[in-house]
Amino acid sequence: MDKELITALQARARVPFTVRMEALAADEAEWQTTENSDQALRVLSGMGGVLSSLLFLLFLWLADLLARPVVSVLLGVVLIVATILLGRTRRQAFLATATVCGYLVGVGLIMVGLPPSIPTAYLVVPVLIIALATGLFTRNYYLILLATVSVPGCLIFLHYVLRQPLWTWLALAVCAAGLLLLALGEHRMIHDRRFSPLRSGLAIGFLLTLIWFRWAGVLFPAIGGMATVLPLFGGCLLLLLVSFRNQHLLGVGLAVAGLFYFTVQYYYDLRWDLLNKSVFLMGTGAVLLAAYGVLHRMNIHQHD
User: Which pTM value belongs to this model?
Assistant: First the structure.
């Protein structure tokens, strides 16, 4: 940060404050080397971790190690602990593949190695415990992201196992509440390295839950589906507004993609003839253009 800007802020501040320039410069250098790393590299590293974990699980299955619960659980615990400790390092870009691979394989081995007598619904318990431990003991972007996405994933799994749609509604509520809390409290959490992956994980988990909300009853009729489409568009609009307010580009992109997909899907799900569908789309477009014109004129008058 510019020293002249800091001096100006100190002069205008009602409460005097001091700035440690050495610590500020060190934090800025760390942010430049870690948090501001190339997004494409992050994505490729994460994908590499997922593919590596699948190959590693295939190797364990071929070696007949997955059939031994003790080996699976112990190996899974060792991998989880190792990846959490590995994730404490600041060199995220170089260790992303290893951490993602170890984390996913560790969670998978623990779930496979649990005794068969344990009810299927209780398999989410170790996943939630691992997610909590990940949030407490590491600041790695990828591990926090995976841990956050796993929370709505566990609730969706409970919907599938227990055949109760209430769990999917709970997943939607948890994601929406988390996004709102992060948006309103961004000024208090922006310094925490967990903030960015936590927000991205909630956005991804929210959209995945909305997709499950749409297709659960179609793919698995026995578990009970949700007929209403209002949460689909309402959820995407909420994600769009919250992300736009806080300039979260990933959230904005996911919201726009979700709105586009659900609009197209709803269009083809309507049991109308082609003429009625066309008239409906034209009317919707005209309303949106009129709303844009009104908002644009109001914005011009405010600036004048």
Answer: 0.72
